[in-house]
Amino acid sequence: MPTLADSKTEMTELLMPNGTNNLGRALGGTVLHWMDICAAVSSMRFAGTQCVTASMDHVDFVSPIDLGEVAVVEAYAYDTGETSIEVKVNVSAEDPRCDERRPAASSFFTFVAVDENGRPTETPELDCPTAAEEQLRDDAIAERRDRLQEVADRLGGLE
Q: Where is the HotDog ACOT-type domain (predicted)?
């Protein structure tokens, strides 16, 4: 049975001019692209098969990533369904000259495991053999629940 740790994926990207807006900061679409790739790798490592993006929750951009900074994108599977894998993605901005990091963005993705014909296939159960993995899983589940509730509350206020 694969573990949460088996799915952990980290990738880094140096923000170059072609990925920036006119303020010299990362384009939102660039960050979303990185997040989707990192989450896809995480889900495939977990499931041991091809996985496709089914959905992405609301994304919170909390700090810009400036030209020349390094984007550190981290993802891990924290829950599963019959054919789905829930993946938490965090992005940090790092100044490589002084090794300082700050949170930049985060979201939750849902992937579907597919077979060689592109049809949904069963996913293995998630195992969290350590207290640290259990804590990551529990924190991700609680954070997603809270975020979804916030969105529902905002939408309810629009009626």
A: 5-117
Report how far Cα 20 is from the mean position of its chain's Cα atoms: 21
Domain map of the chain by residue range? 4-156
**Distance, CA of 114 to CA of 118 (rounded, Å):** 5
Decide: pTM greater than 0.70.
yes
Query: What mean pLDDT comes out for the span 2-7?
Result: 96
| Res. 106: pLDDT tops 70 | yes
Tell me, what's the pLDDT at 159?
54
Residue type present at position 20 = T
CATH (residue range 4-156): 3.10.129.10
Task: Give the CA distances from residue 31 to residues 20, 48, 107, 142, in Å, rounded to whole numbers and listed in that order.
Answer: 10, 26, 11, 24
Q: How many CA atoms lie within 13 A of 158 on its CB side?
A: 6
Partners of 159 in the beta sheet? none
Q: Are 77 and 3 in contact (CB under 8 A)?
A: no
| φ, ψ at 24 (rounded to 5°) | 80, 25
Q: Where do runs of H (alpha helix) occur along the chain?
A: 4-7, 28-47, 131-156
Specify whether the CB–CB gap between 25 and 64 falls below 8 A. yes
